[in-house]
């Protein structure tokens, strides 16, 4: 049995998990009270002292923290350990405002890599596998996290990083890669490139560990079919450690949260009220084992649902759905809430490739939305009138899904720029006018 399938932890009883969480939470609260002035002040403002937190049932008494708190305390303000005890910095890919930086002690790195190792093992990884890590390396956590996890499992690890698709495919075929780790949009691009080069029969992938961005079930099926592998979702965020906060098992009905390290809650994003399992809301995490950069009740902005229903894989850790969007990702177009994932579902159901872009603008004080999607290679030779009737068909399907009119433009194959990391799906030109 693989060392990083840890049934004594991953399949522990709910009582046992709660007991671990309560004990670790108490220690962590004392730790941040003693070592991080911002937490002490916030707790005092909320009238809470460390002694008030005796178990997970008391978690709701602690105040939330947000990304703005991280930015305001940039760079060292939230560290709970002296710099001399930290060995690594990672950072978010944020393009607006100050970047968020996270710190790790060696112990933090070990636990993070262990979480990634659990994810790999749940996807069937063993030391016999060749694991190609095609997430970016560097400040982004994708590459380093999965690299560390793959080492722990004992896979032969190929630290490819992102980009250079020719070289990716060359190594994949020459070295017999069996597990690929990258963003789902890059996996779709790799699949397209492999088929184009006519080397599909030289590819022997069995599993893919895809995360870091939203992707639909339709996209999963498309990648699985094209690459002949089983596609597993993995979730995480830099602030909480990186990939491996939660991961899918073979059942593929949600991602098990590594609850011995992170306590998840789902809240009403407007009122902050904690919601029961099964209800949709904003995901909040408390890191109970982190030493250098412990976050307490951190609001992720990711919208999802938690479920404690029994999983046939035997794991008892709570499952979260794929993020159903980010509360700050949601577009409001003509007063209607639009999630990019709804558009992706329509496109994939109609047989289009996962290459699309959504352009939102404001013309004469009214919002406009245009969906640009690449034609399939077969459609390229269609007549103009055939193309415009396909566009009309998509307009109708989008209207049924979104409730509003979205203009559709079918563009030539390859017209939309491919991403090597997280895809840029939305261009909201309205933001330009606000600056
Ligand atoms: O994306 C960490 C990661 C790397 C996760 C590799 C999985 C694989 P950040 O750059 O800090 O960290 O971005 C975190 O990405 O709050 C979600 O909105 C989104 N995200 C991460 N995983 C998923 C996923 C990494 N599986 C933000 N599905 C998070 C949907 C995801 N969104």
Task: Note the topology.
Blueprint: H1 7-10, H2 14-35, H3 37-45, H4 67-72, E1 88-91, E2 101-104, H5 106-122, E3 130-133, H6 142-153, E4 156-158, H7 165-175, E5 179-182, H8 184-196, E6 207-211, H9 217-227, E7 230-237, E8 242-248, E9 255-257, E10 262-267, E11 281-287, E12 298-304, E13 306-307, E14 319-320, E15 331-333, E16 336-338, H10 340-349, E17 356-363, E18 366-374, H11 384-402, E19 407-411, E20 426-428, H12 430-434
Parallel strand pairs: 3-4, 3-5, 5-6, 6-7, 17-20, 18-19
Antiparallel strand pairs: 1-2, 7-8, 8-9, 9-14, 10-11, 11-12, 13-14, 15-16, 17-18
The protein binds 5'-O-[hydroxy(phenylacetyl)phosphoryl]adenosine.
The site of 5'-O-[hydroxy(phenylacetyl)phosphoryl]adenosine has 22 residues, from strand 7, strand 8 and strand 12.
